[in-house]
Amino acid sequence: MIGERLKHFRQQKGLTLTELADKANVAKSYLSAIERGLQRNPSIQVIEKLAHVLNVPVQEFVEAPSSNSETAGLDREWLELLREVADAGITKEQFREWLEFQRWRLDKNGE
């Protein structure tokens, strides 16, 4: 599970195993073992290093993928956009205010 996610996030960022190993200061062979499922329980320190380099929350590595209503219907592009919003420091309330303004603006222009 962790290995599959690691590989997905690494490829999503366009990194090779060597590049990720260098940036995270983790042995390439160890990363390979994680991705192939040979090492199933990497330490939290290793996961934190990888999460930092990949700019992914640690929880993304350790929690089961959600298929509940929170993410149902959201494709990766939407999820990445939401992650960018959060990473930019925009609060949920600020985003809601912006969304309400956009709705208001569209309604006003549609009259």
TrEMBL record:
Domain Sin: 65-103
Keywords: DNA-binding
Source superkingdom: Bacteria
Domain HTH cro/C1-type residue range list: 6-61
Pfam families, sorted: HTH_3
Gene Ontology cellular-component annotations: cytosol
PANTHER family: HTH-TYPE TRANSCRIPTIONAL REGULATOR, HTH-TYPE TRANSCRIPTIONAL REGULATOR SINR
UniProt name for this protein: Transcriptional regulator
Organism name: Alicyclobacillus hesperidum
Species classification: Bacteria, Bacillati, Bacillota, Bacilli, Bacillales
